[in-house]
Amino acid sequence: MDAVRPLPDFLVKRYQGWKATTYADNRGWYKRLAEEGQRPRAMVISCCDSRVHVTSIFGADQGEFFIHRNIANLVPPYEPDGDHHGTSAAIEYAVTSLRVGHLIVLGHSGCGGVEGCYQMCEGRAPHLEEKTSFVGRWMDILRPGYERLAAGNEADRMRALEKASVMVSLENLLTFPFVTKAVEDGLLTLHGLWTHIGEGGLETYDPAAGGFVAV
Amino acid sequence: MDAVRPLPDFLVKRYQGWKATTYADNRGWYKRLAEEGQRPRAMVISCCDSRVHVTSIFGADQGEFFIHRNIANLVPPYEPDGDHHGTSAAIEYAVTSLRVGHLIVLGHSGCGGVEGCYQMCEGRAPHLEEKTSFVGRWMDILRPGYERLAAGNEADRMRALEKASVMVSLENLLTFPFVTKAVEDGLLTLHGLWTHIGEGGLETYDPAAGGFVAV
Amino acid sequence: MDAVRPLPDFLVKRYQGWKATTYADNRGWYKRLAEEGQRPRAMVISCCDSRVHVTSIFGADQGEFFIHRNIANLVPPYEPDGDHHGTSAAIEYAVTSLRVGHLIVLGHSGCGGVEGCYQMCEGRAPHLEEKTSFVGRWMDILRPGYERLAAGNEADRMRALEKASVMVSLENLLTFPFVTKAVEDGLLTLHGLWTHIGEGGLETYDPAAGGFVAV
Amino acid sequence: MDAVRPLPDFLVKRYQGWKATTYADNRGWYKRLAEEGQRPRAMVISCCDSRVHVTSIFGADQGEFFIHRNIANLVPPYEPDGDHHGTSAAIEYAVTSLRVGHLIVLGHSGCGGVEGCYQMCEGRAPHLEEKTSFVGRWMDILRPGYERLAAGNEADRMRALEKASVMVSLENLLTFPFVTKAVEDGLLTLHGLWTHIGEGGLETYDPAAGGFVAV
């Protein structure tokens, strides 16, 4: 493990600042969270993108959101085949053990994963089609979204595919028996969001409108 | 998609507060991030646990960290078999496309996933051993860590397994050819951290000490 | 160039320490910064005073702040007369080439330049009034701030002049067409700060309060 | 002053962290620095570039260095014409009032100002030649350095011009009577440095070698 190094100084300093302020100001609550365990109100599935700051947008504090982040906020279909499924494991734990009340999928503008998927489906990214490309194989989950895109210019289709990444994930969520059951029992609601990074905008999928509307 | 509902009011209100304050105060920067794309300095792999607040601990703001979160901050071994591998895809994207300089694995106290793994390995959680248990199959990644645990009381062994979840992930990271290459080229350093939620503590793996030491 | 000497030993040693630690721990990031160029989020205009440590106060690391430092953190008015204007050049580069999102003017307690200006305006520092005094001619920029000072004791007036050095600079900033345009386009926000060195205090100009308030 | 906004949250948090840690740990020293005034050992003239971190490289702490930063670390020639000269004012204050023992000019690789000067002198940057270009008029100071460049490929000439920005500044420093006098009195030494950002390298001008040598 010689390749492993101690934490860089700039993060040590920031941590120490947090310890002396935010931690010191909230010590009682953090101790309770540690002793009694977490009880998050919602699970959020968002992209790893550094510009998507779910805790900031929602003013979230320690203990509120169970957060899973992966490339392009994707949920694969239900596949209980005995392999490692990180996303499915996180959803199973949130819904069956933590019993969160909301499951939110959050997409965003300018998603590199979605763009890669678009180029791959258009036949312009052969390296993503190789079996050994983890990004390519992960983005295969979004192919059904690409198939449904309306004709149009590339920018519009790319934007539509970003929102499709939310819808495909919501559809796949409903293939998980424990998700469907919690929804039917009235214990869980699903939500689809898309945020515009540059404009700070937020849209929510509204089934009445049959599409995304500004919040 | 009737199971999908618009965003709940409490989150709408928080978002609107963020838009009118933080967004308004940082609009120029967010626009640039949108136009020029992200350039995060580090990737962090942490647990989904709602009490682990990596952006808070490190005072991270929009654009700084590429964050992947899954149950128990695990990295599976390199397996380019053509299946969906969300964690491996995130690492591939961070290292080969974004070229982050630091890859940080952050474990924590009281991890429910680690506890489940411990019980499963002790033979006390048969439901986690079923093929259909996503959490069980995901936690299989940590079995090598369990095998190496020293004898002792349960609390100590559980704590040791939490730290082992960081070490196993670091070991598995080094099975990815593009990670090893970036490390050898001096472009990437790996870091292992473990945080104590109740005490706000932070430990870093120090190869010179051969274990975790307080930051 | 015989007047030029090699770097003194005490700085050689410190540099070598930095190279073996901070540089070694952040090599990948520094290489990227070198290859891809800087993308600072903010420009800071502060005093040269050795006690004003903007990178320390804000935990700033390589690549974050574009920093201009001059005597008394002054910005002269917009004067495109073809002469050398170092401060104006720095602002032009930050706003039009680097497109920073924030422009921060940071004043401080016990500023020697401000005190010189005060004595000069009171008629007690004839040497600063000479044409050949670079410090005097530079501090002329702050004369409009002196003119506006309320009556009172000297200590209060000097403190008020320190804060006026921030306000005059902010006013002058708004005489630069490219600054005004970036502000109007919502791409740039201006900020005025004053720090108390002995007490470690920080005040920010708040237009709602019409003055400086503690952070 | 409606264009001025309070300090953004991310900097408020970082400041508060510094106050609770670094300030708290050094309170006595900062109070003394405030009461007794600064007594810096050296003046450093460096570029505004966000990647040049003089306090980090030299492990500098509050009170050690009087720092002036402008585009391309340039010193204009001595011109006591009664106009605003920010750089000359800073040098005058450091040498005659603070009586620093070292005056260090620090250049760096990949300097945007130097590159602009190079393109301008090659006739490829007409916008920089306009009278209204503050950056162009500021970089005129480096024209004598361009004139002296040896023939060669562009990358080599650009690198040479970066180092020339240090030499021209040192030459101009010696046109200031108070600098020359302090040097002759044995109270001040001049130093020329150039740092390679990506490699963390540092070179010092060595008159014995007649050029820059690695530290």
TrEMBL record, chains A, B, C, D:
SMART domains: Pro_CA. Coiled coil: none annotated. Its cofactor is Zn(2+). One of its GO terms (biological process) is carbon utilization. It holds the Pfam family Pro_CA. Keywords: Lyase, Metal-binding, Zinc. InterPro entries: Beta_CA_cladeB, Carbonic_anhydrase, Carbonic_anhydrase_CS, Carbonic_anhydrase_sf. It catalyses: hydrogencarbonate + H(+) = CO2 + H2O. The keyword Metal-binding applies. Binds 1 zinc ion per subunit. Its EC number is 4.2.1.1. It is an enzyme of class 4 (lyase). GO terms for molecular function: carbonate dehydratase activity; zinc ion binding. Zn(2+) binds at C47, D49, H108, C111. PROSITE patterns: PROK_CO2_ANHYDRASE_2. Belongs to the beta-class carbonic anhydrase family. Reversible hydration of carbon dioxide. This is Carbonic anhydrase. It comes from Roseisalinus antarcticus. The lineage of its organism: Bacteria, Pseudomonadati, Pseudomonadota, Alphaproteobacteria, Rhodobacterales.
